[in-house]
Amino acid sequence: MKKEKGSVSIDAQNIMPVIKRWLYSDKDIFLREAVSNACDAITKFRMLHPDSEEAMSVTVTVDKEKKEIRIADTGIGMTADEVRKYINQVAFSGAAEFMKQFENEKPEEKGDIIGHFGLGFYSVFMVSDKVEIQTLSSEGEADPVHWVSEDGMSFELSGGKRKAHGTDIILHITDEEKEFLDVWKVREVLNRYCGYMAYPVMLEDANAKPVEKDVPVGDEKNEDGTPKTEKVIEVPKPQQINETAPLWLKKPSDCTDEEYKEFYHKVFMDFDDPLFWIHLNVDYPFNLKGILYFPKLKNDFGTHEGQIKLFAGQVFVADNIKEVIPEFLMLLKGVIDCPDLPLNVSRSFLQNDGYVKKISAHITKKVADKLNSLMNTERETYEGYWDDIAPFVKYGCIKDSKFFDMVKDSILMKKTDGKYSTIAEYKAANFDKTDKKVYYTNDEKRQAASVKLYTDRGIEVAVMSTLIDGNFMSFMEYQGKEEDRVTFARVDADIDGLKEESEEGKDLDADKLQTLFRGALGKDSLEVKLESLGDADMTAMVTEDEQMRRYKEMSRLYGQNFPIPDSFTLVLNRRNATVQALAQRDPEDETTKMLCCQVYDLARMAAQPLEAEEITTFLDRSRKLLAMLVK
Questions:
Q1: Under 8 Å CB-to-CB from 622, ≥6 apart: which residues?
Q2: β pairing state of 307-312 and 227-234
Q3: Where are the beta strands (DSSP E) in 387-526?
């Protein structure tokens, strides 16, 4: 054909320099765009030639010596007219439209564009100072075509050299982008973006040296009986980078547990097995495929980072796009493939897109359905998972009210006896004794004495010891109708469930004991109560208002160091012999004061640790009291 020269577009001089600067930190997407285009060309060939048995593939060849990267496909190819249309007009106008759409984006916000899809062919000019196309159409008796451009703005079109249908894109890499001439770098980029594309993606090192190997010569043996070998020169072959049929595209019924686990280990480099998984397989009203895994979270919830990989038609887009995947699901690990997702858009657009909202809602529902199914049909198995998934479920309830409504009957509480119950089950077993309160401990060892007071009276105590439990309890206290709501109280928050009618110590003077302890402790504002507790051996308890304690804990958690005064109440057990004896002692006696301090510190230690100076004082006082006892 006659050689032809021309300009791509009157706007090219403005567009191409901007493309290079604007996507500076995302240059590696040129490989994704080029390989995606190659796969599209193969798909078109398959559609036009459904009976063809030709092997279809994309080969990426790195030639460091020539400073070239070649992306070759066996697809439909192009005629000269198609090159003029699709490269000089359509592809460039697509790039121009992409830039126009986001021309008002600030440089620091350019990462807001999801995946930077849509730039297409012209992304290769980010790393190239010259680009060539060798192509031959599979249709009719077309001639091969050669297209070349050194700047993306002007081109030259002439006869080509390609013998078989398909297209070669040859990139002459600039000195500034020579890292892409390292095979390991190209392999890394292909693995990330193209690891699951629909056709084989091969990687070839044009500069790889032949390797000499010893290979067996049939069944022949040497004199010493060892296998006889001969030297063979082996030329390295292109290596396939991708899996063309990823697990998430298969029917769930065709997948084994071992395949799910193997895929999880490979993709997420997590050598622990996942607890369980959800296989998403939707064709209507939208196309959605994927697998969500539930990893073990346990108490490291605050530092745990999940990973949800978003794909579009088997092409990787990005990790953890919260505009598509509900935020609380980011604690999970998985892959989501949605071919129809609008990707060359900003995150703010996705937030308000009705299609995306439907996808997000469907994923949430499938997760809730899985949890409910396990709870209803495999309760024992579900309870075995609960300690690991509880932080995720609770976080999801707080973040998404619809999710809470779907799973509220599947929320469990672990109790100090190691068993599990729902809120409804706890109510049925305990509310006649607890005045509609759920009693809990967040430290079974330190609060063991207080826990025992409740369990001895037949009141079950829940364990709420993860970082999210404080927020979750506050959330739960406002759910449902007011008359059906529950209140959570730590075992040392009050004594409502511990009181017992008794005549013992009924004549003790509460005001006198309050004056005694205030004076001995030097705490003029300390509230002291005299009550009849169920366990006569319990001398005293220190209680703290539940809401005030939660507020202090949250303040510490968020690094707010302003002082918050303690709001302790000392509850003396009038049934206890020590309390009865103290009521009869001289309030000015030093031993009496020491005993009062000892009672107070012991009560506090049953609920929480003392400060360092307080521990020193407590130990010194204990030694003195012991010395007095043995005299």
A1: 598
A2: unpaired
A3: 412-414, 420-422, 437-441, 462-463, 487-490
Which is nearest to 440 in space by CA: 409, 405, 477?
477
Q: How far is residue 413's CA from residue 418's CA, in Å, rounded to a whole number?
A: 10
The tens digit of pLDDT for each residue in 33-88 reads: 899 999 989 999 999 999 999 999 999 999 999 999 999 999 999 999 999 888 87
378/355 Cα distance (integer angstroms) = 34
**Residues contacting 473, CB < 8 A, separation 6+:** 440, 464, 488, 550
Tell me which residue of 168, 204, 199, 198 sits closest to 186, measured CA to CA. Answer: 204
Tokens in use for 465? 């010891």
- Residue 241: exposed, middle, or buried by beta-carbon count in 10 A (0-12, 13-18, 19+)? buried
Catalogue all structural domains in the chain, each as residue range(s) with its CATH number.
4-205 (3.30.565.10), 247-376 (3.30.230.80), 510-544+561-630 (1.20.120.790)
**Main-chain dihedrals φ then ψ at residue 615, nearest 5 degrees:** -65, -45
Q: Once rounded to an integer, what is the mean pLDDT over residues 520-540?
A: 88
SS3 content of the chain, % helix, strand, coil (to 5): 45, 20, 35
**Exposed / middle / buried, residue 243 (Cβ in 10 Å: 0-12, 13-18, 19+):** middle
φ, ψ of residue 317 in degrees (nearest 5): -105, -60
- If one counts every other C-beta atom within 10 angstroms of the C-beta of residue 62, the result is 24
> Is the separation of the CB atoms in 302 and 248 below 8 Å?
no
Of 608 and 591, which is predicted with more confidence?
A: 591
Q: Closest Cα to residue 72, out of 199, 180, 179? A: 199
Max distance between CA atoms of the chain, in angstroms, equals 119
Contact 101, 191 (CB under 8 A): no
Q: Which residues contact 61 (CB under 8 A, 6 or more apart)?
A: 68, 69, 70, 72, 204, 205, 206, 238
Confidence band, pLDDT 50/70/90 cuts, at residue 482? confident
